[in-house]
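for the record, two folds in this file. i put them one after another cuz i was lazy. first one right below, seq on top, C-alpha cells after. the second one comes after a little note so u can tell where it starts
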Amino acid sequence: MARQLSKYDLNLEKCAANFQSMSPVGFVARSATAYPEKIAVIDGERRFSYFAFYERCRRLASALTKIGLVKGDTVSVMAANVPALLEAHYGIPMIGAVVNALNIRLDADTIAFILEHAETRVLLTDRAFSSTIKLALNQVSRKILVIDIDHPEIQDGQFLGKFEYEEFLLSGDPTFQWSLPDDEWDSIALNYTSGTTGNPKGVVYHHRGAYLNAMGSAIAFGFHPNTIYLWTLPMFHCNGWTNTWSITAVGGTHVCLRQVEPCRIFQLIEKHCVTHLSGAPIVLNMLIHAPDEEKRKFAHGPIEIATGGAAPPSAVLAGMKAMGFNVRHLYGLTESYGPSTDCVWQSDWDDLSFDEQVRKVARQGVRSITLEGQRVVDPETMKDVPADAETIGEIVLRGNTVMKGYLCNVDATEAALKDGWFHTGDLAVMHPDGYVEIKDRAKDIIISGGENISSLEVEEVLYRHPKILEAAVVAKPDGKWGETPCAFVARATGGEDLSQDEVIDFCRNNMARFKAPSRVIFGELPKTSTGKIQKFVLRERAKEL
C-alpha cells in the first residue's frame, strides 16, 4: 500500500539552495578562507599555507583536466607521505576522478594487477619506488601517463615519466573552478585490500562516506585548529583513515614523514609540538624500544596517538604513558573507511587501577558517531549474541561509512553486504555496557581438543614478558588435539637468552595451561606495509613444523 503524502511532502523540494552533495574536497576551500596564512603542510624545510595548499590542489585539478581526464577516470599514486599524495586527495576528486593511493610495499606483479584492474590513466610515482614501478609498467598493456614525484630526501631512483610533479603543477591554473560531485554517491577513492590469497580486491569509497568518516574522526580524536598531526600512518592506508581530509577540515597542520623511524618521530614531535599521530601497534612498539638517546621528554602533552588492530598489551600502554602519550584504541577495516568504532573513555574509569583501566580500553568500544549500526551476531541466524562478554559472534556494520562495494567484483560485494550488513569476519563478544571486544579473526581461532583458544588472549600474555618485543600466535596442526597454539616471537633487546621453555612456562603461569603454546619460534615477524603481522604467512610456516 502506497504511503499517503502529507503536507511535509508537498512544495518542499530539494534545490541548489537547500541541498548540496557532501564531499570532503570542500574542506580545503573552507580552510583556505578561514586560515589563509596558517601553515597547512610541513615537509622538511618546506611550508605551505592553506592558501598555497589550496592553490596547489586546484593546479593539480586543472593540469589533469588539460591532459583530458574526466569524471570516473582513475589516477593512481605511488608515494610516501609527501605533499603530492596529500594534494592528490583534493585535486583528483575536484574533477570527479578517483584517487587510488597505492601501497608502497607491494611487489611489481601486484602493482601491475592494480593498474590494470583500476584502468589507471595517470600514475603519480615517487622516484624512490621507480624500480618497482618500472617492472610493473612493463607488465601493463594499457597506456598510462607517468608523472614523477621528486623529493629532497630521495637518495636514488629513476625518472620514468613525461613530467616531474612540480613541473606538472605549474601547467595548471591556481584559480581553477572546480565543482562538487553531481551525486554524493559518486566514487572518490579506490583502495586495494591486501588479500592473503589471490588478487587484492578494490574497495570503492563515495564522497558522502569520506565526508562523514572524516568528520567522525575529527570528533572522536579531538582534532581542532591547533592540531599538529604527524603522518606516521601511511596515507595509502584507507586514505590515512580519512585524516587526509579531517585535519584539513579543522584547519590543523599536516606534518609529512617519508619513513617511520623512531628517532625522526621523536625529533618532529619535539620540533613542531605535535599533538596527534596514528599508527599500527608496531609503531608504538618501535617508540617504546627506541634507544634512550633517541627519546625525548616533551614540554607539551600528553600527545594523542590512535592505534588500530589488536588491543595494545598492558606493557605497551604503560610504556607509552610513561613517555607522555595517551593511546586511543580504534577498530575498523578498509571496507569501513578505516576506524568505525571507538573505545570511548568513561569518567568513572578514572578511579580504577591501571590494570582495570587496561582491561576497559582493550575493548574496541562503541560505534563511531557516523556509523549507523554495529552488532555482534550469530553469523548463521543473524541474531544478536547475548551481551554477556562471553558469547562469541561476528561483528557486522551498517551505515554511510561502509564501502560502495568491490570494484568489478559482484560476487564478493554481495557476499560482504548480504542481509543488509557488512560482514567483517571478525569475531567478538558484546559486553553488558554495550562495548564490543574482538576476540579474533574467524580464521585465527584455535580449536584444540574441542576448546576455542583466542590467539589474541595468548598474545596478550606473551607481550607481558619483558624479553618479548613482538608476538603472534597461530594454530599448528596436532595429531592428538587437532590444533595447538604456536607462538612466533621476536626477542627484545637484551632478551637474546630467552628460550622456548621459559616462554611456555610463563604462559602456563599466567593463563589456563591448555592455552599455552606448544611450540615457540624465534625470529623477525613478517608484516604488511601498515605494520600488521601477516598471520597467513605464519600459519603456513606452522604447518611445516
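(here's the note) second protein begins now
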Amino acid sequence: MEPPKRQEKGVETAIHTYGVQHIQFQTQRGTGMDTIVNDFTLNIATANGTGSQSANLILMQTIADMGVNVSGKNLFPSNISGLPTWYIIRASDAGYQAPGNRTHIQVLMNKATWEADIEACEPGTVIIYNTDVKLPVVRDDCLVLAVPMTKMARSIHPKLARMIANIIYVGVLAHLLNLDDDAILSALNKQFKGKQKAIELNSTALALGRDFAAENFGEERGPYRVEARDVDDDYFMIEGNEAIALGAIYGGITTLAWYPITPSSSVAEGIINWLPKLRHDEDGKTTCAVIQAEDELAAVGMIIGTGFAGGRGMTATSGPGISLMSEFIGLAYFAEIPCVIWDVNRTGPSTGLPTRTQQGDLSMLYEASHGDTQFPVLIPGNMEECFEFSWRAFDIAERLQTLVFGFSDLDLGMNKWKCSGFTYPDTPMDRGKVLHTQKEIDAIENYGRYRDVDGDGICYRTLPGSGIDPILYRGTGKDEDGTYSEKPEVYHANMERLKRKIDNSRTSGNWNYLLWKYGKYDSRNRRYSRIYRHESLTMQNTLTSSFADC
C-alpha cells in the first residue's frame, strides 16, 4: 500500500487497514515542515492498572540509550486502578527536564479523558490514537494518526491485549521518531530482565506497531525526530527514592524503621531490596535491622532509640507522617540524639493529593515540632545528590548530635532520571564528639553531657554499653550536667547553645546577583540561567542543598 501523500488543506485521504478508516489532515506547518530534533514533549494518556508503565519506561530508556537527555513524569491516581494516568516524556538536547508549556506529541488511549486531552492539544500537535476506543478525533489543525492498537494486540495474545496495546504505540513512536532498533531491544531487555517469554511477546508487538506505522504513515509522521548523541558509558536511569536507599546503605544505616506512605515507601523498599547484596556478614545475614512499625510515631521512636544507642537510624515518610512525628522530633532536638528522616513531599494539607508533588513541607521541616527548633535540611536536586546527601546525612546528624531531614518530593523520588554516577564515601564515618572511655571523660575538666567545652555548641556524648556510667538524655529542662532544671537562665543558655550549634554549621558566600532555587528546580532553572546569560546579567546560579545554609 502506498503511503498517504500530504494533501492540500481540507482534502482528506482515507486508508483502510484492519478494517479501520484513517483520516489524514493537513497541519498548520505546511508541506515544508522542518525537522525538530531532540526537543519535544510527549504525553501518553492511559488508565492506571493497564500495564502502560512498562511501555513508557521502555520508550524513555530507548531515548536515553541513544545519548539524548530525557526525563519522564508519571501522573498517576492514588487509587489501585481505573483512574486516568498520564506519562510525560521530555527530550531535550539542552538538558531541560520540565515538561514545558505544551505537548508536541499526544497518545490517546483513555476514553475517560479523551475529549479533554484532544482539547488541550495546540495546533500542529501530532495525535496518535487507539481507534478501538471508538471515539472520534476531530482536529483539522493537527496531524492525526489512527492505529487499531487493541485489535493488533489481540492478534498477538487475546488475553493480554489490553497490556500489549501499550507496546503497539511504542512501535508506532519508534517509526515516527526514528528510534534505533538496537536501543529499543536493549531497553526491552532491561525492562523485563531475562523474562524471555515477555521479551518475545513484546518484541513482536513492537515490530507490529512499527511496521504498521511505516506502511500506513510513511514519511507523513510529523516533524519530531530523535537523533543519537554521544553516549556516556557511565550513565544509568534511577529513581530518586532508590538513590536515597543506596546512599543510606553506604552511609552505614543500622536501623530502618518505617511505615508505608506514598510517595516515600520505595525508599524503604529500596533499602530492603539492596541489603542482601550490599550489607551482610560472613553468614549472609544482613547487618541492618528492618522494622515495619505500626505507625509513624513508633518508627521515629525506634530510630531515636538507635541514635541513643550509637547506631545510625533512619525512617522515610511524607508530610502527614512528619505531622504525626512532631513530638518525637522535638525530643531528638532537645535531647540531642542523632537520626535521619527523609520526607518525600506530596501535596497537602491533610491527606491532600497523595500522588501529586509539592514542596510545601520545607518550612515545617526547618522548624519541626513545638518550641524553638532548627534542623539541617538536605535538599537534593538530582540523582547524584539524592545518593550523596543520603549518606552524608548520617555524618551530619552525628557531628551535630541532632535530627537531620532529607527533603525530596514525589517527582524526584518516584520518577526515573539520568544519573552519571555516585560520589561514594571516601573517609571514615564522622561519629562526632564521642567519649569511649572513662579516661577520655576524666581528661575534660568538669565534664557534663550538655556542657559546651569547645565553644561550638556541640557537647561530648557517651554511648551505652561502653563501660562508662550511663548518662541520662533529657527531653525536659536541664542544666549542663543533665540535671533537671526549670531556671529561666539555664533554659535560655541551653537554647542559645543549640542555636549556635546549628548556626556554626552554615556556609556563606558573596554574589552580585542570586538566582535561588532548591530541590528538583535545579534542572528546571537551567532555562532561566540561559536567559540571564543571554541578557548579559551577572549572577550566581546557586542550588541550596541545605536549608540551614540559607
